[in-house]
Amino acid sequence: MKKHKVILLFSSLIFAFLICVSSSYAWYIIYKDINNIQLQILQIDSQISLYQALDDNANGAPNKLDEDNTFKKDNSYVEYNYPYYIEDNAFAYVDTKYALSSDSSANTLFDISVDNACPSQIFTFKYEIINYCGMNNVINFDFLSSDDARLSCFEVRMMKINVNDATTINDIVKSYTYNNNEWKSFVSGEALSVVSDEDNFNIPPTSKVINKKNNVLEIRSGRCDLWLQIKMKDDVTQYENETISFPYARLTLKIEAPTQE
After folding, report:
1. Regarding predicted confidence, which is higher, 169 or 101?
2. Is 4 helix (H, G, I), strand (E, B) or coil?
3. Does an H or E element contain 6, and which?
4. Theoretical Cys-Cys bridge with 161: which of 28, 130, 225, 248, CB 3.0 to 4.6 Å?
């Protein structure tokens, strides 16, 4: 009887030991996977929102927001995000997407179209990019290839909005940097590169800064706004007043390579 109890006790101890080992290994695997996920998210972590300008004259200069805020409330949005800038142009919201990747780059695809285009008209879109990770991002932008012959009637350019390091919101000054080659034309069956590494369109990382207004330490996400402009060529004699859907507009974010010492 005693021998039976000893064997039973010994078996119970072995069983408990095996359970402990299995549980510990399982927790180790889960912990390792969680850490991997956290590291992956930190590679590329950005929010990209697309807006289309309301431009009555279709000349590339969007309507200004009404001083009485009526337009802001009903048709657009109010942007007050010191220390970047206050938006004073009329943009209507289109879509928001997220770039999350464990790799050193991530792509987002947006649908772009224009209605009732006429020669020399310019259609303006704004990309609002917020960088939540701690690394500088490089921006590339292109349109995927298409065999639509109508695209040869259009050309595009992209500009980056720059702001000075202002102390108060009233001191902020905006300026614009165009991509190096200005207007670029579509070629049937070929992708169109609008912004590449050589253009140096970068998004700063999330950083800790001292708010100059109240001397408080803040966590501030990196921010970059881009204007994409699409123009119907002056000498076009066909395809007027049509709705044109462009091939996917691809915005690529890449981790900036460290400089060689």
Report:
1. 101
2. helix
3. helix 2-41
4. 225
